[in-house]
Amino acid sequence: MTAAAAPALERRRPAFSFGRWLEREGVFSWLMVAPPVAFLVALVGYPFFYGIWISLQNRPVAKAGEFVGLDNFVAAWHDPVFRLVVLNTFVYTIAATLLKMVGGLGLALVMNQDFRFRNLTRALLLLPFIVPTVLSTIAWQWILDPAFSVINWALMYTGIANPGPSWLGNPYLAMFSLIIVNTWRGLPFYAITLLAGLQTISPELYEAATIDGASPWQRFRYVTLPLLKPVIFIVTMFSVIFTFADFQLIYVLTRGGPANATHVFATYAFDIAMGAGQFGQGAAIALSMVPPLALIILAMAIYMRPSKS
Amino acid sequence: MAVSSRESRRVFLKRTALGAAGTLLAPSIVRAAPKSMTMMHESSFVPPYDAFFKNKLASAYEKLTGIKINYDVVSVGSLQTRVTTAAENGSGPDMTHIGFNWAFLFDEKFVDVSDIAAEIGKESGGWYESAAESVVVNGKWKAIPFGAIGQLMNWRTDWFKEAGYDKFPDTWDELLEAGIKLKKAGHPFGFELGHGFGDNHGWIYPLMWSFGAREVEADGKTIVIDSDETARAVDYCRRLYKETMLEDCLGWTDVNNNKAFLSEQISCTNNAESILWSAKKDFPDMAKVIDQSQNPQGPKGRFHMLNPLCHAIFAHTPDHKAAKDFLRWLMKPEQAGAWYDVAVTYYQPFLHAYDTAPMWKVEPRNLPYRDALKTAHLPGWPAPLSRAQSETIAKFVIIDMFAKACAGKSTKEVIADAKGQLKQIYRQA
């Protein structure tokens, strides 16, 4: 093609030039894609397949493995704690994701309005997301500590409850507290992403809707929500993945206690693999999170599929 | 514009390619055997303890032998992960601090040090029996025990006195009685029942043992958790929790009871010497009214948890003899004695030569920690260390059996749960 367009160039074309070869679209694009692919294969692909391999073995720490097929998965299935872990993970993920979705959408709608110090507020909103999880979780540890809790202090001071509730000691309250902390941490991610989505919606659509006599709720329901759907889908998917595989927050606050009431896949797998030195079982538990996660994402993809009409 | 961007892209690609090739072709550097060794250690609760190794012991050894000893401090809670990494990769530090059942877990990755253990024992008055329990795997010493971090009763003498107790209750029943009175007076007890490591095992296992209960027999196979003794221990624990403790204990990890005690929320807990340490440093008035006692006894005796700190040599260390020589030197009374002194009995020696060491006179309230060593055992006792035993601990089977009973489940139910879990762990399901 180049030759036809520019015959003068063709005459001077050298036999082979490494530099020119590199510049060819096909070669260059592959070259650019190769490093991230290599990176993914090395840091995600290899550990993932190695994990699968380990999960099929009886593999104690510092000892050679012995192939046992699906034994570790069968053992996990018969383990009552594992079943509790599955339940806990679902409760934790669903509750926290819903809270983040509703709260995040609300925040984004508010942030999309015009008001004084809007930019400052937007910046502050990101704080929970910026502070390292371990640090913010330690702050929460103090907030939820019955002896030093500001919440309990307030409850006692106002005479509402004395002693205050045991936020991390009661099995149900412990799960509730973890969901709240997770929501607090994940809310900014939702809010900022949805805010970005809101800003792409053309104001003309709202004007048209208003002229047609749509109420604020109708404008939200029939203009905002459908246009925001793809963004909500992406952000929810991310959030589900992160929440499902959460580790730091739970490990710092309860380590899965009281009596396993807050153990989730990641914390349980870590305890079994690192604490008990049972790599095979730990890997099996960690990998068990893949199929349900894949199913959730698939279901979401089907449900939230942008309609072609 | 287009030309310059193409130009720079070309330059970039050429440079990258050249750089990569250069890295691949660079001659591999052959390293000579280093004249140094590294000891990995979890950061101590007693800061001068780490400093003493770095500043005094390491430099003294270097002066003596020319071998530099690096002291690699690991943050609290991450030592096992680091030991796992080193053992799995066969590289990293030459020696490491280990605890609990790691001699068993990392068995093949540690050097057999039976020979120097025997020499050290002979030199320093003989080992406590619990020393062997901590590190002997298949008849071989896989590490040199350094000190136990005992878990004992920490209590407020002033509040106990107000309730009519001049000394610490001798039996679990008396402790319950005292606790009821103290809780009524606004000074509840607080014993960890959550998923920490030390302070829950520190009293739950001894409580169970002193009622005559155990999870598995000494043969390491026969599951005996479903017994009247276990039921009595569980019933007792439920009462102790409900009638004497703060509700929050169920969710505690190892830091919570220290905080609650030092903030005067509780009048008694089970802990290492750290509460008295912190109180002396930060709350001297409170320190005057704190005392430490052995665990109460039950129908079948008095027990304590064994929480050992030992030093092991990694099998990947190039020069086993050099590492053994160092540990041998470290455990000589001149060195080990001075190191124990710095921590003032926070680490209780496993060697009888130190039974009457001057450090015990510095703080006589620590003496019960020395005496508790005779009745201390690892979790899972009397069964030997095994894969199943370490899994039982990591799954908190015993702790949760008691915790669930405290949270309201029936004794029968929690024992059946634990039995089911143990059967599964011991592959008898």
Summarize the entry for a quick read.
Chain A has 309 residues and is mostly helical. Chain A contains 17 helices and 2 strands.
Structure, described:
The complex is a heterodimer of chains A (309) and B (429). Chain A is mainly α and 309 residues long. Chain A has two domains: 17-55, no CATH class; 75-303, MetI-like (MetI-like fold), CATH 1.10.3720.10. Chain A has helices spanning 2-5, 7-11, 18-23, 25-55, 71-78, 80-111, 118-125, 127-130, 133-144, 150-157, 171-199, 203-211, 216-244, 248-253, 265-275, 279-287, 290-303, and strands spanning 57-58, 66-67. A two-stranded antiparallel ribbon of chain A has the order 1-2. In chain A, helix 4 (25-55) crosses helix 16, helix 6 (80-111) packs antiparallel against helix 13 and helix 15 (265-275) packs antiparallel against helix 16 (279-287). The longest helix of chain A is centred in the N-terminal third of the chain and has 32 residues, at 80-111. Chain B has helices spanning 2-25, 47-65, 79-89, 102-105, 114-123, 129-135, 157-162, 172-184, 198-210, 228-244, 254-262, 274-282, 284-287, 320-330, 333-342, 359-362, 367-372, 387-394, 397-406, 411-425, and strands at residues 36-42, 68-74, 95-99, 136-137, 140-141, 144-148, 152-156, 268-271, 290-293, 304-305, 308-313, 348-349, 376-377. In chain B, helix 2 (47-65) runs antiparallel to helix 15 (333-342), helix 10 packs across helix 19 and helix 19 packs antiparallel against helix 20. Mean pLDDT of chain B is 90; it is low at 1-7 and 18-33. Chain B is α/β, with parallel strands linked by helices. In chain B, the strands form four sheets. In chain B, strands 2-1-3-11-6-12 form a six-stranded mixed beta sheet. At the A-B interface, helix 3 and helix 15 of A face helix 1, helix 3, helix 11, helix 18 and helix 19 of B.
